[in-house]
Design goal:
Elements lengths: L21 E5 L8 E15 L5 E18 L8 E6 L4
Antiparallel strand pairs: 1-4, 2-3
Length: about 90
């Protein structure tokens, strides 16, 4: 049954963005697994609407990525978080 709601109110598929690919460590508590990362991304993507008006977002390309802040989820420290380096995708 088609929906009468406008396109902006429909349940759209969320674009799948690549992971950030950097590991972190909190020097304050030793955390290696839980961080809040605030990122601003500029992307280009292909928006494909079906004849029925359903949106599917495909081919998401990250053009610019700026990591603004990283804080530890366990102790809430951002000053003690250090970057361990890139994650090997394999």
């Amino acid at each position: 049954m088609p929906s009468d709601s406008p396109v902006s109110e429909r349940d759209h598929s969320t674009p799948k963005l690549p992971p950030i690919g950097v590991r972190y460590r909190c020097g304050a508590c030793g955390n290696l697994t839980r961080f809040d990362v605030r990122v601003t991304r500029t992307t280009r993507s292909f928006h494909h609407y079906s004849v029925g008006g359903e949106l599917e977002i495909e081919d998401v390309e990250v053009l610019v990525e700026d990591i603004e802040d990283v804080s530890c989820r366990w102790c809430n420290s951002s000053a003690a978080v250090t970057e361990l380096g890139a994650v090997d995708p394999a």
